[in-house]
C-alpha cells in the first residue's frame, strides 16, 4: 500500500513539474507580451513600435538562462525607459502556437527576432503592411539587446539645421515640439515621443553646443526663445502657432517620457496614439501583458 502511495505521489509530482515546464513563462510579467496567433498581429503588426520577440520552449535550458534577461529587458524598455519597443515572447511548445512558430521558421530555442514597422505615410493604407522580421544573432545580454533594438526604432524627428532653420520648421501645420541638445544622435526616448504623437504633433531636433538667449523671426514677427544666460542643455520647447510664442518644459530633467508626453498633451490638447497615455494601450495592449486590465535626451 505504501509503495502504491509513493508511486501516486511521484506521478502527481511529475505531472505538476511537467505542467510548470509547459506553462507560459511570461504570463504574469506586466512588461512582456505573451503572444498567441490571436494577438500576434495586433501587438506586432498593428503598431508603429518595433517588437523584439523570443520564441521559446519552457523546458529549454538556454531559454531558462535567458529568462532573467528577458524580464529585465521588458522592465527597462517598457516600464523605465518607455522606448518604442514591444518586448514579447511566444511559447512554441503550445500546440496552438506551433503554426505561428512554423510561419517564422523557428527551428531552435530560443530564437530571437525583431520586427521593424514600415515607414508611416499619411493617407496610405496599412491593412496589408507587415513589419519586417529580422533574426537577432548578437550577444544575449541586457545591454547588447537594448542597444540593438534602440537602432531599430523608426525616426520621425525632423533635424533642424541651426537657428536659421528653425523658422521654416515652425511654419508647418499643427503643434511643433523642439528639442535643443548638444548630442549628435537623437535619443530613443525622443524618437518614441514622435511615434506616440505621429501625424498629430511634429517633433524637431536642433543640435547646439550652448544654451543662450536667442530670437527667431516667424511670419515677420520676432519671437524670443525662453532661454536665459546660465541655462543648460537639453531644453524642450513647444511652439504655439496661434499665440506665436514658445512654452518650455520645466518639470525637471528630460528623462521621464510619461511626464513629458503629459505636458505636450496638456499644452496642445492632443492625445498620443500610442504609448502609456494612449487609449490604444489601455484598451488593447495592457491585456496582452501580464498586467490585466531613464534615458537622458
From TrEMBL:
It comes from the Eukaryota. GO terms for molecular function: isomerase activity; protein-disulfide reductase activity. GO terms for cellular component: endoplasmic reticulum lumen. Keywords: Isomerase, Signal. Residues 1-19 form the signal peptide. Transmembrane segments: none annotated. This is Protein disulfide-isomerase domain. It comes from Candidozyma duobushaemuli.
